[in-house]
Every structure is written in structure tokens, then in C-alpha cells.
Amino acid sequence: LATGPRQNNGVFYEIRTYDIKPARMKEFVEMVNKYIHFRLAHSELVGFWYTELGAMNKVFHIWKYDNFAHRTAVRQALANDKDWQGKFISVALPLVEKQHNEVAYLVPWCQLGKPPKEGGVYEWVTFQMKPGGPALWGQAFRAAINAHINTGYTKLIGVFHTEYGLLNTVHVLWWNESADHRASGRHSAHEDARVVAAVRDSVRFLESQQNALLIPLQCSPLK
Length: 223
What we know:
Blueprint: E1 12-20, H1 25-40, E2 44-53, E3 58-65, H2 68-79, H3 82-92, E4 96-106, E5 121-129, H4 134-151, E6 155-164, E7 169-176, H5 179-189, H6 193-202, E8 206-216
Antiparallel strand pairs: 1-3, 1-4, 2-3, 2-8, 4-6, 5-7, 5-8, 6-7
């Protein structure tokens, strides 16, 4: 993180979280896989997942925009897209209990990554940091992330810092070969003095943390 601008361009990511009615989750996922091509005609999808652990009946999806004018144009086009509105939105909305969205930027020391292969699992970790922003806790947070990367057991996909939504929130997206591989790696990391020291330094700025294990949908670019 940085005390100055996050990046040199206007690119941002909209993070959408939907709570799906428990009895309709399978139906919702099938609809997304079937009709998402109508949505993809308008803007870039980074990834689409459903939660397996840490939360129930939730889906996460992340969309990339060049700037806010781009998002406005996309939203207007979607409202006028008869296929998207008629075949997906009108049928899918009754399956959704709640929607939440955030606008976030990639931190300047992180580029959006890709997993080394398909077939793994993703971990979505949300850190609520103390008020004060990156000027207060950015350096310690980055050190803690790098300490985990250096263990080699996990792959960093992206670190997102919120601009709209609950402020001082950082979302970190990791990839692992499997849930068991992640568990083994975490166990080893907890015994690594470098990781312990970095986490101890950063946790003094932490208000709360929530983890979710995510499974990518068939249509997700990140699989």
C-alpha cells in the first residue's frame, strides 16, 4: 500500500457479493454458467466463485473497469440488453436475498496474478484495518503478505483496497492446489519465525479478519 496514489491509471475493480436463497443455489450457479456470455459482451470478468467454507450460499464476482465513465456506460448498456435482462436478470433476481458491492483498487505493489494451473481452490481473506489508511498500516501489512508469499505454499492473486464500501478494508485473494495443501502450508507458516514476526507486527493494526474458501464457477476466467 502507499501514502500516495494507488496507481497511475483509473482502472478499478467492482467486487460483488450476493447472498443466494439456500434452496436455489444450484439453480443460480447453473444460470450464471449458461447466460454469463451476455454479460461478458459488455465488460471484463476477473473471476466468479461460490463459497464452500467460511460463508454459506454466497457468490463473489469481480469486474474490471477502465474508469467510472466506463462503468456508467456498461451499466446503461446492460439495462438496454434485452437478452441479459430477459433471460438472466428477470429470472435470477428472485433467487437473490441480498446484494453488496464495493469499489477497490489493486495496491501499487501488486499486479493481478493467475494460478499456475487450473483445478485449485481460492481463499478470500478480508482484513478490516484500523482507521488511518495505508499511511498508518500499509508497510506492516505488505510485510505480512510478503512473508506468506515467501513460504511458497500459496500463490497471491491480488490485494484490493476499498475506495467505496467499508473503508480501511483490504481483500486478499490467494490460490492453493487444494484445501489440504493450504492447511499444511498454514501449519508450516505458523512455525516460521519470519511469518510469526511479520504477522505480530501487522496485527496491531487489525480490527477483524474473515476468511472464505471459494470454488470457481465453470465460467470463471480464474479457475
